[in-house]
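User: Quick sanity check before I run a bigger batch. Here is a single chain. Can you write out its predicted 3D structure?
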Amino acid sequence: MPDHSASPDFPDFRVSFTVEAAESADRMAPHRRELLDRGLANLARDPYHKASAPVGTHEDNRKAQVAPGILIEYLIGHGLMVVAVVTVFDEDLFLV
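Assistant: Done. Predicted structure follows.
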């Protein structure tokens, strides 16, 4: 398996958001935004973590549940992790 680690000078991947993902994150309640940020900080150390999974056939397009009820889809390249989608599940809304 290839080494996907960030540069030794910058051990964590830099995290950026698309406009849409940033808007979703900004609408989150403060306590949920804190959970998102903590999850992203952990994922930035290892964006290929075993708790993440590829989206489609390209290993650098991934998804991960970074906190309870918070799913992200992100792209990885050149020490950068771009969050493209932030999905927040309301745990109080169920069909059954």
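The first helix runs from residue 19 to 26.

User: Great, the batch can go ahead then.
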